[in-house]
Design brief:
By secondary structure, this protein is α/β, with parallel strands linked by helices. It is 42% helix and 17% strand. Helix 1 (3-16) crosses helix 2 and helix 5 runs antiparallel to helix 10 (299-309). It is rod-shaped, with a radius of gyration of 33 Å.
Length: 336
């Protein structure tokens, strides 16, 4: 028995003093209302209404139980209201890369409040973001896809130690440094120069550290192939340890870090974009499935998250696709 539905029929019949008007008020057929009241009477083992009169009259038992029935219905209504408020106020998890800037994510959170949505930012590796969408623990997530198929493309480059300041001078902060034309670097540019003369050994290439955000199958394969084409040792590329350690090595000039420009600038490192666009990051903002299909992704959320990860305005897909098979022989020949 649906106790709440039966109590609603009972209270409505008392209020309206008519089974037909009570049924109309509840939007059900009168026979169904009559059955519910009879079932309730059988449950309480007593008559709730005196049916011997022309007008519906409440029995002594009916009068005794009425305030308790109203209390149960009121509590059920409050329970539904609290549950609805909790659903509306629950934070929607958003899976993002770990190298997004805090200020950019703060703008996303504030925009969510303005649109009536509480967003919770969750920094997760690529595989965990996809898993979160699959099990609906995340409402939205930035999913890694090849850049030539990506709605959001993030140029990757190499972060390196900042230029040294003159003796006694304080190094300029990222905000104080003048904006210069963005440099482009090719992996073959990292090949150590031959040193002539006896007893001189060719220096080793500076290591390239990669973070967990780029430990994606297709991205790793492309980077390995690019390193081989550039004539660099396979060991040139190695996974970074904790982010703080990787940054320390980079800022100390012991390594370069594969990352997006906003992350490098945020930590005061120099940054040069990789010329090979096939090595850049690609993202697609996706929503978890709701019912038969995925929910719609709000455009404002996509725009703000694109800024947070450092995405650039889209360029023709064909141009990026050609970079996947880019011929670098001419550049290698130029480097000997």
């Amino acid at each position: 028995m649906d106790l709440l539905a039966h109590l609603e029929a009972y209270v409505a019949a008392v209020d309206e003093a008519s089974f037909s008007r009570a049924a109309e008020r509840l939007g059900i057929a009168q026979p169904l209302l009559s059955r519910r009241i009879k079932t309730l009477e059988a449950h309480f083992e007593g008559q709730l209404f005196d049916r011997s009169r022309r007008q519906v009259a409440t029995t002594e038992l009916g009068v005794l139980l009425l305030p308790y029935a109203r209390d149960v219905l009121d509590r059920a209504q409050r329970l539904r209201h609290v549950a609805g408020s909790a659903r509306r106020s629950a934070a929607c998890g958003v899976g993002v890369p770990a190298d997004c800037g805090p200020a950019a994510l703060a703008r996303v959170i504030r925009a969510g409040v303005e649109h009536g949505t509480t967003l919770g930012m969750r920094e997760l590796p690529p595989a965990e973001r996809e898993a979160g969408l699959a099990d609906s623990s995340l409402a939205y997530a930035l999913v890694r896809v090849p850049p030539e198929h990506a709605p959001l493309r993030v140029p990757l480059g190499l972060a390196s130690a900042p230029s040294e300041a003159p003796d006694g001078a304080r190094p300029a902060s990222p905000e104080d440094r003048p904006r210069t034309r963005r440099r482009t670097v090719h992996l073959e540019d990292l090949r150590p120069r031959r040193v002539s003369g006896a007893g001189h050994r060719r220096p080793a290439a500076v290591p390239i550290l990669t973070t967990v955000e780029d430990h994606v199958g297709y991205a790793q394969d492309r980077l390995r192939r690019a390193v081989a084409r550039a004539g660099l040792p396979e060991a040139t590329v190695r996974p970074a340890g904790p982010m703080a350690t990787a940054l320390a090595e980079t800022l100390a000039g012991q390594a370069t870090l594969l990352c997006a420009e906003p992350f490098a600038r945020q930590h005061g490192a120099r940054w040069a974009a990789l010329g090979d666009a096939s090595l850049h990051r690609g993202y697609d903002l996706r929503a978890a499935h709701r019912g038969r299909g995925p929910a719609k992704v709000p455009q404002w959320l996509c725009t703000l998250l694109a800024t947070a990860v450092g995405a650039v305005p889209d360029e023709p897909t064909a141009a990026v696709a050609r970079a996947v098979g880019e011929d670098v022989r001419s550049r290698l020949a130029a480097h000997g």
